[in-house]
Amino acid sequence: MQVLKSALLAGARLAAAAVVGLAITSAAMAQSAADRAVEAAKKYSGQTITIVWEAGLQSLDPLNFSGPKWEKLTGVKIKVIEVPTAEMFTKILQEHRAGSGAYDALNVIPSWMPDLAAAGALEPLDSWIDKFGYRDELKDIAPVFRDNWMKVGSKIFGLPDDGDVFIMYYRKDIFADPALRAAFKGKFNREMDVPKTWPDFAEVGAFLTEKLGPKTYGAAFFRDAPYGQFMFQERFRNEGGKFFDADTMKATVNSDIGVKALAGMKAENKFMPPGVETWGFVENLAAFASGQTAMTISWPPYGRWTAGYGTDEKVMSWVPKTQIAGKVGYALPPGGHPELAAGFSLSVASGSKNKEAAYLFIQWLNSREISTERVQIPYTLRDPFRENHYSDPVYLSRWPDAKDYLATLKLASVSGLLDLSIIQTDKYEEALRQGISRLWAGDDPKAIADKIASQWDAITQKVGVEKQKAAYADWAGKSAAYPH
Amino acid sequence: MSAKSNARHRRQRAVLALRYLAVLGLLIFFLFPVYWLLSISFKTADEIFASPPVWVPSSLQLNNYLVLFKDGDAVTVWNSLVTAGASTVLATIIGGLCAYSLARFRTGGNGLASWILSQRMVPPIAVVFPVFLLYVWFGWIDSYFGLILLYAAFNLPYVIWVMRGYIQDIPIELEEAALVDGCTRWQVLWMIVLPMARAGLFATAVFAFVFAWNDFLFALVLTRTEVTTFPVQVTHYFGGQSNFWAKIAAMSVLGTLPVFAIVVVFQRFLVRGISMGAVKG
Amino acid sequence: MTLPDHAPVRHKRKRQAFPLVLVGPAVFMLLLVGLFPLIYSVIVSFQGLTMTDEDTSFQGIANYAQLFHDQRLWESIFHTVLITVIALPLELVFGLMMALLLLEPIRGRQVFVALLVLPTMISPIVAGATWRLLFDNHFGPLNQIIGWIAGHPTPLLWTVVPDLVYPSILICEIWQWTPFMFLLLLAALSGVDRSAGEAAEIDGASYWQRLWHIELPSIAPVMTVAILIRALDLARVFDVVWALTKGGPGTMTETVSIYAYVQGFQQFETSYTAAISFLIIALLSVLVAAAVRKVEFVR
Fold it and tell me: In what order do the strands lie in the sheet with A328-331?
């Protein structure tokens, strides 16, 4: 009896707890993470939050959309500090060293996060995430970003905010052209398909340039060193390369595979438009959008703009107008494992004098509700990174091929490769950047690869071989570090 | 008129024509880049990204400038104005007094004068790093105060050197007479020396201003957000997804106009100012 | 050039404080921003501070020893010297030619001079940015003009190809600083006493003979100063290269200023950069000493 009674009582308690719990949850459910952030931020009304953002188009998001909207909702002003990508790491660390508290919130390229966290420049976000109920929404960020772009050690230092990945864009009409296909078959004795390997790509690219040039070239990429560096990382690993010997930490970037990748990149320039060596994001986009090139590889915004989505916006006036809307196909780049190149996570600067307000802004930006809007702003460069972004019904209907686009992006997020991220990553990348610019300057690929390797070894020596070995093992242990 | 002088006359005219031609060529070479910068600042995106390039913008649309004001980037010109302006005033006052002392009393002898001059010649890159460490220590990074102090200090040797020359050229008899009449040293400075040195002071200040205005390295290292100056802002537009040519051009023009105005207004001071007073203009 | 001590002899006692009061603030400021940081960085240069390491223990001369093994550093010094030895003579010769061209009266001379001097007044970073726009292989006018002359399109990659990066830096440098030389030399030439030249002309000396034997020798001191000032400026060249190539391709155009910046502010090799700073000062001190003497002499 007694037993039964206590069991009943316990049951009742449980039930009561469940009811209370439900009530709390539903109260929370009534409010989204975005709303919670807005509510909590109202007490900071009248203050200003500075946020470091990549210079150029990226900054139009906080300048024209999210900044003004946040100010309207909360009264908190947003000041955007535009910094060129190549200098973001430097500036953030310099500022941390200087300690003037000039930056509140930051855009951080995830591969730098370990360094910035180790230097103490970033603030751990865990306590705010709990305080403002954000854990649930973090869960539906696509796995590759969620699992790799958020934490250093066991602490959360950044909210993954940009599903960057390299996609191949190709002209469907050119690849479907019967005459071209027949000619290609005649020459190579196989169908002219969208290239799946790099040798494939070289053949198709050269063939198309030969047939259609100089009006249309087979392909062009952005070759400028900061971008070319990512392309190399991708290609090197797709061909089977490993950055280091895991036992000795000796750089193996100058293996035959590394040399071949560099030589291949150089050789392809021959069928690309003259001057391609200097091309960056916009030059390459301009060429593809105007029909000058049949294939290119780039970040996701190309897909939206070449479809003509939103390019009538006034702020987009300087972006080259598409003349190929409806003719663009999407595919994974040769090798099938695209680079999750750069990307951004949102962080709070440890030197900020207004950390909580800064956090609230980035939670709001990153929330399901607001991020779904942000990845669809025509002029933004933020790309889908949450599960619901890939399946958002509005997004799927944005242009006729949008479903193919989103499907390819989702596929890419699954098979994508992470940028190298160890201790002092920026120095290793700088060696790569220098190598790429030497490649365009005409140096021998083997000599370049050897030089990169010797620079890498020198950096490793300085960092400490054992220390770096551990960091590398940690990184290489991730499923998205190398193709598998 | 004799045939000989006629021939000579013709030759002189030919030489003159050639000289004008050469001057024209020089003007084109030296001014075309300036024109190009100006023209880009008025071009629309389509015109900027046209290949082959468009040489004359279709209209004088001011959009590229308006964007700078709308987004608040134009405030960097104001920052330049404040830092260059305040540091110039500071350097001119402190430097002018020091120069007077050096010129009239030979304070510190040649040693001090040479030491001051040598400060001017130390390469900024050798100083900027130590200064950065110092500023971090004092918490002066990204503050008007820090930048003003630095520019003032950096301009001091220049101001002192040039002003010393100007003051030496002022006849001393007036000062002596005033002293005999019972004026204090400060009164002499204020009532006799200042009015006579005013032109020189002005010319020196103009150049000190231009040097501070054009600085890039110190501003790059010592500013973040609050006091970013315009040259640093210009470089912010490089890179990213593209070079924002319209912004680069418009910001450059905004930052160059004040200096051009100065050149036009003060061109008679140019020579002496530019050469640290080494050559009397 | 030594001036007699003009200071009045009266009020001797009061006078001693007054000059020092006038000099005080300036000297204090120069010490604060000039000397004090240098002393501080002497200390740092013997430590082991890096981006991640806050090691302040005494490291001996490790950082200075490293200077001698740092190939990139010596290359950057070589690049700086290379730019200097090419740009300086060209600026001098072109500046002189311009000065001679505008020495004789010509209508509109004042306006011409003011216009020609504009490049020198522009911020070097703006000058670099401007030329970068001009050099652009696709949207810049320079390749277009060359194409007209060549008769076919010439997509030259000015800031990428090794054979062209130095020419592009030099063109920009010369564009900006030839007017400086011009202005100084014009002023100096205008000050040359005409009578000797006129006498020589009557004796049948040609224009070039007069130039070589009379005018150039009399402006030699000014030329020396101009060369020294420019040499010191070129030794620190940073802005223009930064805007045009950032030291690339690779480190092909990296000057010593850029290298020091990269080490100090991008790689955060704090202590090592302090050592580099002192190397630069040591290397330049000869030049600085010469310049100080000359400038004083000409005054």
Answer: A295-298, A167-171, A328-331
List alpha helices for chain B, DSSP H. Answer: 3-42, 45-48, 63-70, 75-105, 109-121, 124-138, 144-169, 173-180, 185-188, 194-214, 217-222, 230-236, 245-265, 270-274
Given a cut of 70, the residues of chain A with pLDDT beneath it are 1-30, 313-319
Asked if pLDDT for residue C248 goes beyond 90, the answer is no
Could you say which architecture CATH assigns to the domain B67-274?
Answer: Orthogonal Bundle (1.10)
Burial class (CB in 10 A: 0-12, 13-18, 19+), C231: middle
> In angstroms, what separates the C-alpha of B179 from chain A's closest C-alpha?
51
How is the beta sheet containing A77-83 ordered, strand by strand?
A77-83, A48-54, A105-108, A344-348, A159-162
B116 compared with A230, residue with greater pLDDT: A230
Highest mean pLDDT among B32-36, B256-260, C225-229: B32-36
State the number of CA atoms in the 13 A half-sphere of C283 facing the CB.
20
Number of domains in chain C: 1
Distance CA A408, CA C191 (A): 76
Interface test mutation site (partner C, options A115, A440, A460, A462, max chain C beta carbons within 10 A)? A440
Q: What is the pLDDT of residues C14-35, one digit of tens each?
A: 557 888 888 889 999 988 887 8
The residue ranges of every structural domain in chain B are 3-61, 67-274
Planar angle of CA A349, A355, A356, nearest 5 degrees: 140
CATH, residue C280: 1.10.3720.10
Measuring CA to CA, which residue among A413, A381, A418, A429 is closest to residue A53?
A381
Q: What are B197's two structure tokens?
A: 């040195």
Which are the contacts of B33, defined by CB distance < 8 A and separation ≥ 6?
C119, C127, C130, C131, C134, C175
Neighboring chain A residues of B237 at a CB cutoff of 8 Å: 55-56, 82
Buried-exposed string A59-86: b where 16+ CB fall within 10 A, e elsewhere: bbbbbbbbbebbeebbebbbbbbbbbbb
Is the confidence at residue B90, as pLDDT, over 80?
yes
**Which candidate in C1, C10, C30 is best for mutational testing of the B interface (most B CBs within 10 A)?**
C30
B30 pLDDT higher than 90: yes
Per-residue pLDDT tens for C81-110? 999 999 999 999 999 999 999 888 888 888
Q: E strands, A332-458, where?
A: 339-340, 344-348, 417-418
Would you call C250 and A434 a contact, using CB atoms and an 8 Å cutoff?
yes
Nearest of C259, C236, C279 to residue C42 by alpha carbon: C279
Determine whether B31 is exposed, middle or buried from the number of CB atoms within 10 Å of its CB (0-12, 13-18, 19+).
middle
Residue with tokens 């010109």: B77
Nearest to C182 by CA among B270, A68, B257: B270
Under a CB-based contact definition with an 8 Å cutoff, are residues B37 and C130 in contact?
yes
Option in C249, C251, C266 nearest A90 (CB): C266
What are chain A's domains? 33-163+341-406 (3.40.190.10)
Nearest C-alpha in B relative to C260? B125
| pTM, full prediction | 0.82
Q: Give chain B positions within 8 Å (CB) of C175.
A: 29-30, 33
Tokens 């989103």 -> residue: A406
Asked whether the beta carbons of residue C33 and residue B22 sit closer than 8 angstroms, the reply is: no
Distance of alpha carbon A284 from alpha carbon A225, whole angstroms: 14
- State the residue for tokens 């049948």: C204
Tokens of C228: 């020294």
pLDDT for B126 = 77
Taking CB atoms and an 8 Å limit, are B51 and C183 in contact across chains?
A: no
Question: Is residue C171 in a domain?
Answer: yes
Distance, in Å, from the CA atom of A167 to the CA atom of A336, rounded to the nearest integer, reads: 10
**C157 contact A CB<8A:** yes
Which pLDDT tens digit goes with each residue over A164-210? Answer: 999 999 999 999 999 999 999 999 999 999 999 999 999 999 999 99
